[in-house]
Amino acid sequence: MAEANKPVALVVGASRGIGRQVALDLARNGYSVIVAAKSTSNASNVVPFPPDPNSPQSTISTVEREIREAGGEATAIRVDTRDFDSIVSMITKTVDVYHRLDVVVYNSGAIWWASVEDTPMKRFQLMQKINPEGLYGTVQAALPYFKCNNWHGRIVVVSPPIYSRFFRGKTAYAMGKVGMSVLTKGLAMDFVRQDHLDMAITSIWPATAIESAATQNTGDSLSLAKELRKPSIFSDAILAILHAPAAEVNGVLGLDEDFLRKYGGITDFSKYSVVQGAIPRRMMPATFPVLEVPEQDDEGRRMDSAQSHPSKL
Length: 313
Description:
It is a single chain. Helix 1 crosses helix 8 (about 230-245) and helix 4 (about 120-150) packs parallel to helix 5 (about 170-195). It contains eleven helices and nine strands. Strand 2, helix 2 (about 60-70) and strand 3 form a beta-alpha-beta unit. By secondary structure, it is of the alpha/beta class. It is about 40% helix and about 15% strand.
């Protein structure tokens, strides 16, 4: 039976890799966790157990079993983030099981790094469905439950800071991921304008490459491994975000190690290196463009289409 006083975290895209690690570590830190993704299995028949966390054998079913066998509380819920009805069902089931929702982590994602010429339309559409549209649908479906919680809650999005180099060589992918970061910035402004000061939405991105199925399938394994960090750096950074004051992280587009420096007091990241003693190359810039302008607070005549033209869709 779910514990009534435990905060509830929904991790979307939690079947393997970073999402799995986030789900495990949230459970270890006192959260009841909804483990959500597409892949399911009969976890009781998986041998060896736990499976390779970056393999297809790792599913929401095995992650749920891992958490429960470690003494945590978890429920696996299948979701297809391309389908808004499936997203709504996921949120509804979460609240049916735990009667509350405190944290949403959106880690679900599709990746394709190539030129525009070499990115087929169907591949582009798939990324937009899963990345910005899936995030938007999840946020839309979750907001009424945050409202029921008197606007106390957190949303964490896996999306990057906005800077032009990110677009190079992966324009289609960047369009969706940057769109997710725009949602973070815009919804953060909504929270402030609407006086929901105990709400925060934050974007997080890795400073270095992180061990995953994608990195396992690239190049020479040993030389690549020296450039990788463990996914636990990401889960630790998300925990640091959740412990930080809402006002300080609302609307922030930041990096895992920078969140850990500021809110976790960590300056030595060696424990996160996949290869002991290796120093993975930081792939992100040292600084990012400032997006705010001097006239930031000047809205002019405020427009609200929801009030003046109620949707007929």
